[in-house]
């Protein structure tokens, strides 16, 4: 179970970074502003989930 918990945080952080890079790439190449907005909203949601997961892992390790 510990190895599964240890994998959750890096996966969440990589998901945030991936969506951030997609959004930045879309803005740089002059893509749809609507798509950039959706990607940035998704990034914020993923950041929220990542923070919750990080806090849960810290709590799990402390217990």
Structure commentary:
With 63 residues, this protein is an all-alpha fold. It has one domain (2-62). 90% of the residues lie in helices and 0% in strands. Helix 1 runs antiparallel to helix 2 (33-62).
Give a topology summary.
Blueprint (H helix, E strand, L loop, with lengths): L1 H27 L4 H30 L1
List the main descriptive attributes of the protein structure presented here:
63 residues, mainly alpha, 2 helices, elongated
Short description:
This protein has 63 residues and is mostly helical. It has helices at 2-28, 33-62.
- Rg over CA atoms, rounded to whole Å, is 15 Å
List the total number of helices: 2
Describe the largest sheet: none
Structural class: mainly alpha
**What count of domains describes the coordinates?**
1
Helix and strand run: HH
The total count of strands amounts to: 0
| Spatial separation of the terminal alpha carbons | 14 Å
Shape: elongated
